[in-house]
Amino acid sequence: MMSKYQHLYVVIEHEDGMPVPVSLEMLGEARRLMDGFNKKYSSDEKVVAVVLGHNVRKLCEELIFYGADAVIYADNPELRYRRNLIDTKVISQIARSREVAAKFSDTSEFVKPRYMFFGADSIGRHLSSTVLAELESGLASDINKLVIEDLEIKHEHKTKGQAMKYEKTLEMYRPDFSGFLWTTILCLDNRNPAIEREYHPQACSIIPGVFAPIEPDTSRRGAIVDYVPEFDERDLKVRILDRKIVKSAVDFDSHKAVVSFGKGIKDSPEQNIKQVAELAKEIEAEVGISLPISKKPFPVSEGINSTYMIPDRVIGTSGRKVAPLLYIAVGISGAMQHIAGMKESGFIVAINPDENSPIKDECDIFIRGRMEDVIPLLLEQLRKQRPTIEVKK
Amino acid sequence: MTSTTTKDLNVAVIVKLEPDFSEGNVSYNADGTLNRAETKSILGPHSAIASNAAFYAKVKYGARVAVGTMGPPIAESALQQSQLLCDADELHLYSDRLFAGADTLATAEVLKAGVSKVEGDGKVDIVFSGHRASDGETGQTGPQTAWKLGYTFLGHVIDYNVDLQSRFVRAKRLISLQGFYDIIEEVEAPLPVFISIDPSYKAFFNTVSQRLAFEKYQKEARSRAENYKQFLKVLNTQQLGIDPKLVGLPGSPTIVYKVERIPKAKASRKSEVIDGANRDQLTRVAANMYEVLGGMVIK
Predict the structure, then answer these.
(1) pLDDT per residue over A168-180, tens digit each?
(2) Band of the pLDDT at B121, cuts 50, 70, 90?
(3) Is B270 part of any domain?
(4) Per the omega criterion (within 30 degrees of 0), is the bond before A213 cis?
C-alpha cells in the first residue's frame, strides 16, 4: 500500500551552483537513514534533493553522485539568489506536488514528503521556519543526531495519556545551550479529528559540519525533474539590490593557531581576556570563545566586549568549526558542543585548573593550573624560544 | 505634536523574558545544566537589540511603537525593560494557561494574533524580533510569526531605512555562507515587513534633530517605564480571538520526547598532564607549540 507521506526531501543550498558543505552532509545522512528505512520496512522511498537556482544543472547531476535518488530542480533567473518569500512558496509548492513526485515514484496517495531537511545556517534556519509554517507541520532546529524508529508514546495531549504506537518516527536530537543535555524532539501525526492538520513532513534543520557526506559515486543514476515555478507579481517586488562579499572580522581559516577562552576567565575577566589576547598575538593566533561567553556573563569594558564577546568568535555547534594546526583552550571545560567545533585541530593544548574537566580527554597536553598563573609563564617561554627566522627581501 | 494616534509608521517588537546568563544571576546545577529555579530572568539580549531597532524607527520616523510578549504574568518585566529602551506607546502581554507547552508554531499563532491587536491607525508596518532566544535558541518563532502574518520576512538585518512615501523598506542583511564567505546583501521590500535583527546591529543617529529626538524620547521612555502598567494590556485566548486548538499543546506538532545527558564521548586523545607552575615542563610545551606551527614567519 502506498502512503500519503513518502520520501525524504533535502533542501539544497548553493552559491551559483557550488554546494554549501552542509547540503552534501545532509544528503549523506539522508542516504544512510533511507537505506536503513527501506531495508527495515521493505519499501522504496527516495532521497530527494530540492534545488532552486539558475543554470545549475551540473550541480543537480552531482547531487545524484552524493546520494540523491532524484533531484527536483526549479530553474529560473528569479531564483538565482535566496529570497525567503518566493523560495518558501516554491518549496512549499514542490512539497505538495503529487505530479512532481510521480516522476520518480508511485504516488497515487502522495500528499506531502514524510521527512524534510534544511541546513541550520543563515539561510536554512529561516527558510525551514517559513516553509513549515506554510505546511503547518513540526520543525526542530540544530539537530546533530537522527534515528528512525517505531515508538510507543504516552503524552498528556497527543495520546490523552494512553500508550499509542507511532511508526517511522524521526527522532531528532538537539544539544541544548549548555552543551550538556540532549533533547529529542518528535513531530507526531495529528490524531485529533477536531484539528484539521496533518503533521507531515517531520522536519528539522541540521548543524553544519556534523554529518559526513558519502563518497561521490559517478556511476549512480537518478531522475532530474524540472519544476516550473509560478510567481506572484507582488512577491517579486522584494528585490536584491546589491550583494557584497565581505571578509569576516574574525578570520579563523587563515591562521595556523587559535586560542579560545571560556568561563575560566571569571576571576578577573578583563585582565584575563587581555592575557589571552597577548598569548594569541605571540603565536599569531586568532581568538575564539566558548558559547557561554557570547552571552556576556561577565562585566568587561566596552572595547573588550565588542571585540571578543561576540557570536562571530564562538567555536562549536552554535558557531564555527575550526581545525588549526594548534588549538589552545584556556579555561574551557569541554562541553560537547564546544568539542565538536575544534576536535579536528592538529595539536590541542588545554589550560585548566580542574583535571576532571572533559577537555582533558580531548587534548594532547593538559596544563594544570589557573590561567592567571600559567599564561605569564608560558608567554615567557614562548618569547625565549621565539624562532628567529628573518624574511629575506 | 498634532496627534498621538495618527502615525506614518507603526512598528511592533516581539520580545522574550529569558534566563539571565550573567555571572551572579545565573545558577548551574552540579551537572552543568541550568538551574532555572535559581536563575534570575531578564529581557533577552537579542530582544533588547530588537527594541533598539524599534527605537530607531521612533527617533527617525516618529513611529508608534508597540511591544508584545507571550508568557506568564512575570513576563511583564520584559515589557517594562523593553519600554525603557524603545519608549513603547503600548505593551501587550499574551498570557493564558492554554498557551503552556507551545512549540514555535503554536507560539507564532499567538504572536500573530497579538500583532493584529495593536492599536493605532491601520496595521503594523514593521515587526521586529531578536535573532534568537538565549534559552530556546531555535530562531524559528520570528520567521514563523512573519509567515502567519503574511509579512515579508527579512532576517539578519544589520541596518534599515524606510521610505515613507513609497512605503518601501531598504535593509542590509549579513549572511554567512558556511565554507565560503560572508555576504552583505542590500534588499528592498514593500511594507509590511518582519525584521529579525542581527546581533551586530547598532543604531546611528547622525543629524542634530535626530539626536534631539533621541534625547526627548529617551527621557519619555524613562518616565513611561516607571509607570509601565498604564500602557499594559493583558490578553488571553478569547480576547485575542484565537482558536484554542491552534495554541499550547494542541497547536504544537512537536513534543519533547526525552531529555538526557549527552554521553561523555570516549576519550579522543590521551593527554599528557603538565604542571602549570613548572618552568621546565612549560619550556617543552612552548617548544612543542613552535614545532607544530612549523615554519612560522616572524615579521
Answers:
(1) 999 999 988 767 7
(2) low
(3) no
(4) no
